[in-house]
Amino acid sequence: MPVYSAIRKTYRTSTSTQIT
User: Fold this and answer.
1) What DSSP letter does each residue of 1-20 carry, written as one string?
2) What is the full per-residue pLDDT of the chain (20 aa) written as tens digits?
3) What are phi and psi of 9, to 5 degrees?
4) Cβ-Cβ contacts under 8 Å for 12 (sequence gap 6 or more)
5) Whole-angstrom Cα distance, residue 17 to residue 1?
6) Cα(4)–Cα(2) distance, rounded to whole angstroms?
7) Could you tell me if 8 and 16 are in contact, meaning their C-beta atoms sit under 8 angstroms apart?
8) Are 12 and 19 within 8 A, CB to CB?
9) What pLDDT, on a 0 to 100 scale, did the predictor assign at position 10?
10) Under 8 Å CB-to-CB from 19, ≥6 apart: which residues?
11) Gap between the Cα atoms of 17 and 6, Å rounded
12) What is the distance between the alpha carbons of residues 11 and 8, in angstroms, rounded to a whole number?
């Protein structure tokens, strides 16, 4: 599911500062 992958990538970038 490329759509899920894209959303996951965006989510990670958005919460990159929170995810340590």
Assistant:
1) -HHHHHHHHHHHHHTTTT--
2) 677 777 777 776 666 555 55
3) -65, -45
4) 19
5) 26
6) 5
7) no
8) yes
9) 74
10) 12
11) 18
12) 5
